[in-house]
Amino acid sequence: MPEHRRVVVIGAGQAGLAMSRHLVDRGIDHVVLERDTVAHEWRDSRWDNFTLVTPNWQCVLPGYRYEGPDPDGFMPRDEVYRWVRGYAGTFDPPVREHTEVTAVTPAADGFDVETATGPVHCDQVVVAVGGYHVPTVPRFAERLPATVTQLHSAQYRSAAALPPGAVLVVGTGQSGAQIAEDLHLAGRRVHLAAGDAPRVARFYRGRDCVAWLQDMGHYDIPVQEQPGGLARRENTNHYVTGRDGGRDIDLRRFALEGMSLYGRMADFHSGRAHFAPTLERSLDAADAVADGIKDSIDAYIARSGIDAPVEQRYVPVWRPEREITEIDLAACDITTVLWSVGFRTDYRWLRASVFDGAGHPCHHRGVTAVPGLYFLGLPWLHTWGSGRFAAIARDAGHLADRIAVLARETAAA
Question: Are 177 and 250 within one domain?
Fold first, then answer.
């Protein structure tokens, strides 16, 4: 007979641990199944110079918060890893490491969970494996010569680990922009294909923009009430950095310093990379988003009567004289192409009818149409902070309340 547990939590990152803490506090029997080790993604899937882009004071988990000496700073990768591991040490969650879940199937009285170490039957399941599962690259990447090293951003560790030569970074979301900066600061020759990601200023009118937006209640607005509604879940994150105490990422400044910028990479053949003529439009659109955020902060300061220093607006320091739409990789001495174009979900192991046509979970604040099946830790699960430390505790508490109600109903049946 399979082992029976009231609740199975899949994933022992910050989301799974937050869920476990709430279940421990409520006395609900559960087990947390982790294919690797607790918080391993922080150690294994970030580059050496990675830092958080949200300030340390936003690092809050149930019964636990950042208590270090730099609340306005940004923890580097290894410190985040230790912080999350330290959280697990505060309440001894029932985690089983090296236990990969291979299938979850709804059953008449709960769920059948298949693992590499044996079956588990449970009443309820919380899927806390994040939303970034399989790194994606375009199909035309297959046409790049074997002499060119290709990496996804999830595999990048440092400039020194790459072959000598120039690097083409494709994509300017948070990872792409920060990795391009990392390579640039290391003295590498960088070519950057810019996408449509927006940007945000690190500081404005004397404070971190995150602090202003927190006070404005921006991070508490449910996704349904955001412009675009649920489609917001597909938006690319604003690029900014917490490195060296935090600063803007200004692609135009990089160009002045020698980085080569292009529009969206569209194709590769015959040794040449081809780019859409979208660079100037992308840079202007990113600046417009940053200015729009500043406009909202200005309005908040004015209506609240806050005494804050006045700051001059950003003026573009560089514009492309012309759009370069193709380059020869060999002529540019490009020996590495680093793809930062996103991930796709992979829930093939979850055999429940809770997905849309693109394979994304359908849910309301993590609650699905299948009784007892929940998601936690996804970007914009409920608010901006759902995929970050900022709101995981709140989201986990909401689901824990739902789990407790169903557990009582099941026990009374």
Answer: yes
